[in-house]
Amino acid sequence: MKLHFDVEGGEFITAGIASSKVKKTLKQLGISPNIIRKVSISMYEAEINMVIHANGGIIDVEITPENIDIQLVDDGPGIENLDLAMQVGYSTASKEAREMGFGAGMGLPNMKRHSDDMTITTEVGKGTKVHLAFKIHE
Questions:
Q1: What is the residue range of the signal peptide feature (predicted)?
Q2: What is the pLDDT of residues 32-44, one digit of tens each?
């Protein structure tokens, strides 16, 4: 099964819709609650990052009997220092995002902690690609 979502940058009102739809789909497919929790947390964090830091982007989800693969691609500013961005508490979120409760610097660390595999490819001025992989059977 394949799912595709477009994410709008700066649209906090619609942020999280894609991850909610994937969560609902996984429940309907009978995926274990623990896997659903991991996927939901990781995907929500990634989706919010697209809204906060990029000009939006696209999310492609592929669900097979063995795996859930999520590809997130944006054309935002890219990540200047990926090692720094992976540190808990580090954030470049705007004042506006922080006032809404976002930008605590937990996004990338949460994505890494909850996924079975995470790959980030980024180039300053060009954007970021994130691949998240989850094994369905624990």
A1: none
A2: 999 999 999 999 9
